[in-house]
Amino acid sequence: MFTILDRYILREVVPVLLVSALLYVAVFLFGFFYVGSRWLDGAPVLKVLTWLGYHVPGVLVQVLPMAVVSAVVIPFGRMATEGAVLATQAGGVSLVRLLRPVLLLGFLLAGFSLYLSENVVPESNARVRGYWYDELTTPGHGLYRLRGKTVPLGNGIELFFSGYDWAHRAMTGVRLQLWKDRQVTVIFADRGVYQGRDLKLTGYRIYTVDYAAIDGLLNASDAQLPARLQQVFKNVSVPRSEEASTTIKVGLSRDEALANFADPLAADTLSLSEAWQRYTDPKLAPADRTDAGLAFHSKLALPLANVVLVLISLPFAVYYGRSPGLSMGMSVMIAVGYYLVFLLARSMGGLGMLPPALAAWGANLLFAFVGWRLIRR
């Protein structure tokens, strides 16, 4: 149950939180716009704003911990300067008790960030890259950037296409292949078009070859040869019509394929649950498991920084927040310090110097320990 003190603290904290979050989001969006502005000459304003809007969910997850620091340091620094904190302590209210409403707010923001990471950010990140190539820089023709590349589409399927039909926005010279042990199914098609998570292939031919059965041809007699050949070529499907079409379900949508493979900077399109599935995949190579562990634990650790940074921000605000300018500078210093430690630990984890879990959670553990010691001193 909220007391008058809790409501008073929240009235001071929440407006600063909202303004800080809007400010940080605006700064990040301006950075994206500035970097991409050289390619946006002549682009419709509405489309540019839509593209920037797709950045917002991912940016929010990144900046909410920074906004939490400002929302604690600035109001509590002012209350400490005005003597409000000293008055509450004189009345028997400890710093730990003052933490209660702000910690609750931190947990709510952590839950909100986890929800975004699971349900919103993966799709919005994919849409950012897809919208960039399909609507802004090469309208409707983003897939052209994948021409000549082998693209893993999920479900064990790999895509390759040699050309692109600009008039019909279709891939040409398409090849799909799916391996299962030493057996491969290859689909050749004249044209391919994305339909959601499906590929519609026109003018297709399907061949299934079992390479393990090829060894049986070496000592086959003339009588055995036809049966052995059937074991090698398990399926050959060539429709009579050159315009025949089929639909293949793949693991990546058009936007996700562009987000991951259109350029060297792949977007993060994995949800929290998908990151966990990849991390616990028993077939994953050790090096890939390290990367998967870092990705999964980071997706958990960063949202919970909304709670951790409350612990370290409050004592700094009370003890050192002498003026609004000093409080603002201190909030930036704490936020930047956290992200520096977080990124440094992640880099060490990627190099194998730290276990993935410790690398991702190291900044949270360090800042929580320091903050709690300062509060209890």
Offer a few descriptive terms.
single chain, 377 residues, alpha+beta, seven-stranded antiparallel beta sheet, 11 helices, elongated
Secondary-structure topology with pairs:
Elements: H1 4-36, H2 45-81, H3 84-90, H4 95-119, H5 121-137, E1 151-154, E2 157-165, E3 170-180, E4 183-195, E5 198-210, H6 225-232, E6 233-237, E7 245-249, H7 254-261, H8 272-279, H9 286-320, H10 324-350, H11 356-376
Antiparallel strand pairs: 1-2, 2-3, 3-4, 4-5, 5-6, 5-7
Helix pairs in contact: 1-2, 1-4, 2-4, 2-5, 2-9, 2-10, 4-9, 5-7, 8-9, 9-10, 9-11, 10-11
Descriptive account of the structure:
The chain has 377 residues and is an alpha+beta fold. It has two domains: 4-128 and 287-376, no CATH class; 156-250, no CATH class. The protein contains eleven helices and seven strands. The chain has helices at residues 4-36, 45-81, 84-90, 95-119, 121-137, 225-232, 254-261, 272-279, 286-320, 324-350, 356-376, and strands at residues 151-154, 157-165, 170-180, 183-195, 198-210, 233-237, 245-249. Strands 1, 2, 3, 4, 5, 6 and 7 form a seven-stranded antiparallel sheet that branches. β3 (170-180) and β4 form a beta hairpin. Keywords: Cell membrane, Membrane, Transmembrane, Transmembrane helix. Pfam families: LptF_LptG. The chain crosses the membrane at residues 12-34, 54-77, 98-116, 300-319, 326-345, 357-375. It comes from Oceanithermus profundus (strain DSM 14977 / NBRC 100410 / VKM B-2274 / 506).
